[in-house]
Amino acid sequence: MSPQPAAHFIHDFRQAAPYIQYLRGKTVVLAISSQVLLAERLPTLVQDIQLLASLGMRLVLVHGTRHYLDRMLQQSGSELRYHQGRRITDAAALALVKQACGLVRFDIEAALSATPSQTPDRRNPRLRIASGNFLLAKPLGVLDGVDMQHTGSIRRVDHEAIRQRLNEGDVVLVSPLGQSLSGKSFNLGLDEVAAALALSLQADKLIFLSSEAGVTDAEQRIISELTSAEATELLARGHYSSDMTRMLKTAIHVVENGVRRAHILSGMADGSLLAELFTRHGHGTMLAQAPFMRIRAADHRDIGDIIRLIEPLEAAGVLLPRSREYLEAHIGTFSVLEHDCHVYGCVALKHFADSSSAELACLAVSPDARDSGFGEYLLEYVISQARQQGAHTLFALSTHTGEWFDERGFQAASLDELPPERQQQYRANKRASKIYKLAL
Ligand code: ACO
């Protein structure tokens, strides 16, 4: 007998498949804190970045310098001065910023140039890294009488030049330094650069890799998903570190201005980036403008997903078999539950000639998404739809899941309570399902 393949691996790989497909061709800005780089996380992080690039993601990396700079300033005995949360960059500090950028850039470029050791064919072309004068900057000027000197802000991002490099398959690496039209350099903040890149490129995602594991609730548990409104409320309570506050404000700003998702996660934990992108629960915190879960009317494009959900259940006798032709003809009766753009559940609402009753049918939730309340959401949705359509009774016929309906207020019913046309079908299919009803 041949050995069983590793069950966990197969399960996880299958779970990752829709995300792999979805992320191909998507533009992702990765903002890497200098703390992560100083913690010597670069070699393993880079392996994951190489993997993302090989899966067809369009990657723009921007690195921080703050912790490098703090070290250098301390070593040189210089004094750090801040105003309104921004460092005042004098000429000496600017020279150190340039050194820090050079140091970090070369380290990232060298690490990204290594051929991944797992690659079967080591003659594969190396990743190409593009950099350049992508950020046009201007001086921040004098704030409240304080001259910010070489601290700048972004005037424009040359997004066309970046897009060209991405179209050629390059990974783009950006430092938080901008150039002015008069040829001067200005020190920029990582969050500002990350946001400007994500917005100007209309990126699909902005991901912060920092030393913090994600946004936490009052009990210090990581919140895996937040809408921008929820994040704004949390910020108002104000118990986050200054780094987290900055990242969270930036994340809210970008998702409210067209970036589909922003993520805040630890760059310290091995594989956190992969777990965040390729698993349903993620690893850190993901922000979006709108709620992640929604139930909507199904259309023909959903038939493939519905078949994927119901086929194994049909084979196990849990659901009545439905052909593709049946689904095509009756797709108007189906609704699907989407979470973060992936379909995880379906349900159908059938009508009878006598409109005082309706039937809930073909309820299914993907095995990797069960026990999260999705089944219950689908049930509530169908109940409200049936009510809107004037039904007084909702039936459900089940061979294996009676208990589930029972626990949600359904009661056993007899065959003669079903509408006549459904009684005929019941007799014809010989499944002897148990019949449940719910008064609406
Ligand atoms: N009998 C009793 N309880 C069950 C069953 C079952 N067959 N299946 C799941 N549950 C319980 C879980 O143990 C869990 O209980 P807990 O909260 O105490 O831990 C709870 O239901 C989970 O509830 P939800 O999270 O709201 O439901 P979920 O998203 O997991 O979906 C569903 C429930 C749809 C039944 C799912 O398990 C599924 O797809 N099962 C296979 C298909 C199926 O049986 N569909 C119904 C066919 S009948 C019809 O469509 C009319």
Summarize the model shown:
This protein is an alpha/beta fold and 440 residues long.
Features:
15 helices, alpha/beta, 440 residues, 8-stranded mixed β-sheet, Aminopeptidase, binds acetyl coenzyme *A, 24% strand, 39% helix, Carbamate kinase
Q: Could you explain how this protein is built, in words?
A:
The chain is α/β, with parallel strands linked by helices and 440 residues long. The protein has 2 domains: 3-291, 3-Layer(aba) Sandwich (Carbamate kinase); 294-439, Gcn5-related N-acetyltransferase (GNAT) (Aminopeptidase, 3-Layer(aba) Sandwich). The chain is 39% helix and 24% strand. The chain is built from 15 helices and 23 strands. The chain has an 8-stranded mixed β-sheet, sandwiched between helices. Strand 19 (342-351) and strand 20 form a beta hairpin. Helix 3 (42-54) packs across helix 5 (91-113), helix 4 (66-75) packs across helix 5 (91-113) and helix 8 (228-237) packs antiparallel against helix 9 (242-255). It starts with 6 loop residues before the first helix and ends with a strand. The model has no long low-confidence stretch (mean pLDDT 91).
Task: Choose one word for the global shape.
Answer: elongated
When the domains are counted, the total is 2
Small molecules in complex: acetyl coenzyme *A
Mean pLDDT across the residues is 91
Quaternary structure classification:
single chain
At CATH level 3, the topology of the largest domain is Carbamate kinase
In DSSP terms (H or I, runs of 4 or more residues), the helix count works out at: 15
Q: How would you sum up the major sheet?
A: 8 strands, mixed
Quick one: CATH class of the largest domain? Alpha Beta
| CATH arch. level architecture of the largest domain | 3-Layer(aba) Sandwich
